[in-house]
Amino acid sequence: MPGNTLTLRGTPGGGDGWSVCRLRGDRLTGVPAVDRARDLAQARRLITAATPVDPGRIADPDAPLKTAARAAVGEAVGAV
Fold first, then answer.
1. Strand positions, DSSP E, 1-80
2. Residue by residue, what is the 3-state secondary structure of 34-50?
3. What's the confidence (pLDDT) of residue 3?
4. Residue 65 φ/ψ, nearest 5 degrees
5. pTM assigned to the model
6. Secondary-structure breakdown of the chain: helix, strand, coil percentages, each rounded to the nearest 5
């Protein structure tokens, strides 16, 4: 879809699983995943809450997705 960005987390065929994050602007809109249940659980929360995310942080497969959440003014980042 136009306006969407896809970011690969992990390596397909590698031993640790992988996921693909689909973003529209700074919002996560979908995350198909293979052997990355944590990515799915955290993505579900971020998508449901329409939480803005840092696309650069999303790309790090070693960082939990929730660490990519951008805090709104006056809110804690770890609230997701």
1. 4-10, 18-24, 27-30, 33-34
2. ECCHHHHHHHHHHHHCC
3. 80
4. -55, -35
5. 0.80
6. 30, 30, 40
